[in-house]
Structures are given as C-alpha cells and as structure tokens.
Amino acid sequence: TDTSSPLLLSGTASSDIPWAVKVEDKAKYDAIFDSLNPVNGLLSGDKVKPVLLNSKLPVDILGRVWELSDIDRDGMLDRDEFAVAMFLVYCALEKEPVPMSLPAALVPLSKRKPISVPGAMPLIPSSASSKDSHQSLPPVGILAAKTPLTQWVVSPADKIKYDEIFVKTDKDMDGFVSGVEARELFLKTGLPSALLAHIWALCDTKDCGKLSKEQFALAFYLINQKLTKGIDPPQALTPEMIPPSDRSVTLQKSAQGLNSVADFSAIKELDTLNNEIVDLQR
Asked: Are strands 177-178 and 210-211 parallel, antiparallel or unpaired?
C-alpha cells in the first residue's frame, strides 16, 4: 500500500522504464544461475528451491518470490527471471516487503509487452485468503489478466464425484484414506502399480501415508487424466494442481526433494530424513 515506492509505477511496463536490477547485480546473479547447471537456459523449480531456502526467509515469502519471478508461468526460470527472484530475495533480506504483484520496473525488458488494459489483474499469492486478495492494489499493468493460482485443476463437479468415492473408501471414517483403504480401489483402475505409487506420492504432500479429501480428489484427477487422455502425471505438482489447503506447505516439502543441487548441509540432512521416512513407509 506504499504508493510512494519507486517500484510501484502505474501504467504499462514499457521499455522506457529502466530495469530495477543493476548491471553489476545482474552479473552476480548470472554467475549463480550458471553454477546451477541450467538446461537450455532454464532452471527447474527443484534447482532453484535450495537457493531460495538458503536465504532462511519464510516459506510463504519464498513462494511469492517464485510466483512473481516465473513471469511466463512455465514452472522454470530463465536468466532474467532468476535475476528477478534474486533481487526480490535480497530486498526481503533487507526487510523490504515482497510486493503482491510484480512492479513494472522489475519486469525484464525481454518480457515486456504493451498492455492496452490499464491496471491488469494483480497476481493473487497462493497463501492469501480470498478476503486479502480483493484489497485494492495500485494498478501496475504488468501481467495480463491470468487465472489466479488459487484456481484448482479439479473442477467443482468432479470434486463432488470424488468426494462420494472418498466417503465410501474411508472405512474408519477418520477423514483420511490410508494406503490400505485405497489399495484395492487404485489397482482396479488397471494402471501399473509403479504409476499409481507415483500418483500417491505426489498427492500425499505431507508424506503421512494417507490422503485428505482434497488430496484424494487430486489423485483421482491424475488417474483419470492418464486413463482418458493418456496424460502422464508430472514429476512434481504444478502450482495449480496443489490442493488449496496444502498450498502453504508444499513448497517446504518439495524443497526437501531428492534433487538437491547445491551443497547446503541443512537441505542434505532433510533429504536423508525424507528418504528414511519414505523407506519406513514402504
């Protein structure tokens, strides 16, 4: 709400607004980018997360940094997007608040498009409640109106259908479906057990060996995608797949994933613990 901030420039993000990332800082960020072994000039979330976590910033702040810096919404960061992420992290470390939507001055020149609509829809961070997300923000005219990340891939109609199956499967009525309860139902789909195990692991975002109603609905959504459209489940959940109630914790879990890239001892310890937990569950 600080309208005097130089980053909150209204109007379109045109090329005459200089980029907020300084040349000398960009060189520093580029060096970090190259050290993370980008593929085709892009870094996946798995490679960027350890770097973000190393800042020791709260997970919800890091989630917003990721959302703001992945400007083209492809789940990867290119060189310029990575510089935006680093810039925001350093701002946050200097106790500057991370903005709710990307200021015009921070949009890389390579990503700027003329936008005819004044004040495009600001991005709603996944952790914001619907009440907070409707607070008026200064028009920043950067992002064309996109689907807010709060929209879930499971449609309301499908959710009702999957909830009915959930209630029948949850034999002990504890509000969760365990692996034992779901096993027979999953195998009836005819999909390979390795694929079903991968879907289960994706949906069990808290690694607790059981699925909540939303996680169960997501599992059935992924199974149906494979059965009806031949679409394989992803290696990691995309932002719009994450069940709404899990959105604040998923970054934390995926950051403990197996693809740790940099030598951060804390991440490695978490990996070891995570692997041990998975082995125990098996």
From this structure: antiparallel
The sign of the dihedral angle between the CA atoms of 164, 197, 60, 26 is negative
Query: For 119-155, what is each residue's pLDDT tens digit?
Result: 444 444 444 444 444 444 444 433 333 334 468 899 9
Q: What's the CA gap between 30 and 161, in Å, rounded?
A: 48
How do beta strands 43-44 and 76-77 pair? antiparallel
What domains can be seen in the chain, in order of their start residue? 23-111 (1.10.238.10), 156-244 (1.10.238.10)
Paired with 178 in beta bridges are 210
Question: What is the pTM (predicted TM-score) of this model?
Answer: 0.39
CA-CA distance, 226 to 230, in Å (whole number)? 4
Q: Are 282 and 201 in contact (CB under 8 A)?
A: no
Alpha helices in 58-178 (DSSP H): 59-69, 79-93, 130-133, 156-169
